[in-house]
Amino acid sequence: MAKLSTSRQKALLRKYSRNVKFLMMLLSISIIVFFLPKQAKFGYEYEKGRIWNQKDLISPYNFAILKTQQEIKNDQKTAKESITPIYQLDAAIENQQLEGFKSDIEIKWHNAGINDRLKPKFISTGTDLLQEIYETGILKLNPQYQVNSENYPITVLNKNVATPKNTNELFTKEKALAYCDKILSKHTDLDKAFLLDMLQNRLQTNLSYDNNLTSRLINEAIDGLSITRGMVQKGEVIVYKGSVINDDVYQKLESYKQAFEDNARTNGNRKLVLLGQFFLVGIAISLLMIFLHLFRKDIYADNRLVSLILLVMTAMLATLSLAIKLQFPTNLYYIPYCIVPIIIRILFDTRLALNIHLLVVLIAGFFVPNSFEFAYYEITAGMVSIYSIKNLIRREQFLISAVIIIFTYFVAFLGITFIREGTFLDIDWMDFLPFVVSVLLTLLAYPLIYIFEKIFAITSDITLIELTNTNAPLLRELAFNAPGTFQHSLQVANLAENAIYTIGGNALLVRAGALYHDIGKMENPLFFIENQSSGFNPHDKLPYEESAQIIIRHVSKGIEMARKANLPEVIIDFIRTHHGNTRVDYFYQSSLKNFPEKFINENIFRYPGPIPFTKEAGVLMLADSVEAASRSLKEPDEESISILVDRIVKYKLDQNQLKDSNITLKDIETIKTIFKRMLMSIYHVRIDY
Fold first, then answer.
1. What pLDDT digit, counting tens, does each position of 469-482 carry?
2. pTM above 0.85?
């Protein structure tokens, strides 16, 4: 089977780009809908303490009023306390210990030095004591039941016959030994120490705690509890319009919601629920595509970037849906919703991040409890996360952003709690914990951004910060091999950065592009005047055409070096476009002047292009030309600098070099003003006041 060439593959991708986009949209919608909970949505929003502003709510059918979680806990506690711990009586232990006691007496009697006439009394006294103690019962106290008192009621089970007892009526080993000591003290004719030693070894618990049976009885009691309290009859008013939603009404509404969802699961048409979800998600994804088509055509045209955006949205909504289905964690605010706007903001821009975040929250709002409260929390936090990293120039801004987001959550939490509870004292501060965890998980955006950059070949501000570090390997090499070019690049970076910052654009991007735009000059640094320090000019011995080609070749060589160093394509674009398709006029005019009769191919002296196609690239072209030309000024003063800047900019405009760069005439005037002011500062020109 014939293999398609690379160019043919690209042509096919361009031809079917729209179809691929629609397939990605359909796949994303399908995945989101697949994960969403398949149940009808309860049509009312309500909060405890709020006014019911809708019409009277009348029950359409009978339903039971569910107990609150606190009521269920109280019932369970009462049921648990009603079950006394079960202790099993082991009657065999008494006989074993009595026989053992008699054996001990026989073994140790001869060495005790006691009169043999007293032996029967020793045996009878000890036996009577052991029988009395074992008939009463010996147990080990369980700390689990000693919460309120040292003693507690129990149930003694003997051959399936239950007898209620209290531990204060029974013996522990310690109490039994003390009782023996007390009784033996009355028998002055007996050796108490000897007999007490014999008895101590024969005191064993004959009442053992039966944890399995006790737990089973407790579980049976709890399982037998009712989770409802009363009924609401069909036609009964659940809540009147204008009334306050108190605890009782709130629980009726919660019970009605549960009954509605149970009824919908049983009787509802799941296909219609699925279709409704498909419509809702489809509208949201379609609005996103329309936004990209109208305002970010560059992203819309690139299916690679569209797939990244859809992936982030789908992953977040799928995660939320799984959390709802599994009910783990029980609080949905543990999920880091702000991670989506942060990733989109850093990889793309603010408008797109805000647009996507709003759509994600809108979709999620249909499937979470208290959707308005949820939307308020997440929309405000998402907006803050976007605004707090508008200009990402330092890594610690992630931590600063996290602190600001937590503060926003905290203020919103207090506001909503005050509205709901009307008191500061009853706030459960543990309810705020999920928001803190959510913000901490949001810090995962940092490694995710790196992964997305590598997979989808995107350049974020974080990468640009790394690239603008002058200790980067390629820049260190440039500073060492072509120091003049390196200084020129620094000056161009300062000019371009100030200009783009003023007229609007990515200042970090233009600075990175400026620092790397001339790296191709490292191949032959001495052929460029800024690196010639000894007065020797190698162009003096070369034909004009060859000199021009050496100068022009620094662009293609720079592209080659940049790709070898794995620089992002967006930086390579600056190298490719910073001369556009202009001529190397010095050598071209010199050739015309010295060889007037010779036919000269102008294309030999012209850069291959393309011309700048972004505002940042256009500003860099102007800054590069102006800075290079300013070095030729013999007496730089305000007038000469002004004339120079005006002439360079006019030449670029006349050559149509800026027609694709989206720079307005107003921007041009602003750029010229900034260049003039900065060049005068560089050359220390004093302005007359």
1. 888 889 999 999 99
2. no
